[in-house]
Design a protein that fits this description.
Blueprint (H helix, E strand, L loop, with lengths): L8 H13 L2 E2 H10 L20 H4 L2 H16 L6 E6 L5 H13 L1 H6 E6 L3 H16 L3 E4 L6 E9 L8 E6 L2 E10 L2 E7 L5 H7 L10 E4 L1 H13 E10 L1 E2 L1 H4 L10 E4 L2 E3 L10 E3 L2 E2 H10 L3 E7 H9 L14 H15 L9 E7 L13
Length: 377
């Protein structure tokens, strides 16, 4: 059921804004719900997030360890430069950063010597929590925290894990043969959908350049913010890689007849629903990413797709090189080994996260890189 603006502090703020200025785009509504500096979902303490969902990083350090091996291979492909930047966007409290840096320091010393890791996070509270996770590596000159992406990254890799699906999306509807936009308005004291003209011509262009024509009555999301973020990141990169881990589809699948209502979902208490107006700021909002749009955005900044594979394929290709020896900790008991193997299944097999998430890699000014994570199984 639609929610009353009085239910959360953010709802009251948004309702007052709509009363004063009129309906807002869903992208503006979603941006406030997720990133409002005081009441946004991602401004909360990260511990509350576990009540709603887990990420691959939360399952087992093997995820970061195998990523470290792929990053080290990227460093090799760039000619083993003296300094190699890894910039993780949406780094949260630094859990993935710590897994990568700890493993590199222990198992990949030459790569670690060149590694300059920047954990980028908008939330001040989560940046503060990074200090403990990265303290040893920061002291050694290999890790730092930042609110924003570096202005220039001479050589390295920009990494995002489950970030771009949480950037705001516009919602559109094909009505009487034309694209219309779905806004957020008020019906009395209740949030509601209101259909109106497109807020920007970029929406028409977004679908046209991908050759997508929605069916009559079909709803869809347009991830303008995610595509713009990727293009901006790619422009900051001088040479190297963009590594994007997220769940999504190519445009031809994302906008087919199986997705007539789009892919937008609200997550709370590990349950997905479509009441996007319930408790603004207290639930996660997310939509599938569009890998075709990412290719176009990356190309505008001089990057090319190296490959797109499932997380299953990516992790299995990297792990099988040493029979997943990286899965185990030194001195671990056999019971610990069994538990680690069970957690690995969650990461790689289709009934877990293995086929839900995909890994997309773009390259910039790197000739014929050999990337084990993209190798056919």
């Amino acid at each position: 059921m639609p929610s009353s603006p009085s239910q959360t502090p953010l709802a009251a703020i948004l309702a007052a804004r709509i009363r004063e200025r009129g309906p807002i785009t869903f992208a503006d509504y979603m941006a406030a719900c997720l990133y409002h500096p005081e009441h946004g979902y991602y401004s909360r303490a990260e511990s509350r997030r576990f009540a709603d969902y887990y990420t691959s990083v939360d399952v087992h350090p093997i995820f970061g360890r195998l990523l470290a091996r792929q990053l080290a291979e990227m460093w090799e492909g760039c000619g083993r430069p003296a300094k190699f930047a890894v910039v993780e966007a949406g780094a949260g409290v630094g859990r993935l950063a710590a897994h990568i840096l700890d493993f590199a320091a222990r198992a990949l010393p030459e790569f670690y010597a060149a590694l300059c890791y920047t954990a980028v996070e908008q939330s001040a509270a989560r940046r503060a929590a990074q200090a403990a996770a990265l303290s040893a590596h920061s002291a050694a000159g290999h890790g730092e925290s930042s609110e924003t992406l570096p202005a220039a990254i001479p050589v390295g890799c920009i990494l995002s894990n489950e970030l771009l699906d949480a950037l705001p999306v516009h919602r559109v509807l094909r009505e009487r043969g034309a694209l219309r936009e779905i806004y957020v308005g008020l019906n009395g004291d209740v949030f509601c959908e209101q259909v109106g003209p497109l807020s920007t011509s970029a929406l028409d262009k977004y679908f046209a350049e991908q050759g997508i024509a929605l069916l009559e009555g079909q709803q869809a999301e347009a991830g303008l913010a995610a595509a713009a973020w990727l293009e901006d990141a790619a422009r900051r990169l001088g040479r190297g890689f963009l590594l994007t881990i997220d769940y999504g589809r190519e445009a031809r699948e994302l906008y087919d007849e199986r997705h007539l209502r789009g892919t937008l979902l609200a997550y709370t208490r590990h349950r997905a629903g479509e009441d996007f107006f319930a408790a603004p700021g207290e639930q996660d909002l997310t939509a599938h990413v569009n890998f075709t749009a990412f290719d176009l955005a990356a190309a505008r900044a001089g990057c090319a797709r190296a490959g797109l594979v499932s997380q299953f394929s990516f992790l299995l290709a990297l792990g099988k090189a040493n029979e997943f020896a990286d899965l185990y900790d030194e001195g671990q008991t056999e019971a610990g080994h069994v538990r680690a193997r069970l957690l690995l299944k969650t990461l790689i097999f289709s009934e877990g996260m293995g086929e839900t998430f995909s890994v997309l890699i773009h390259t910039k000014d790197v000739a014929n890189p050999s990337l084990t994570g993209l190798a056919p199984l």
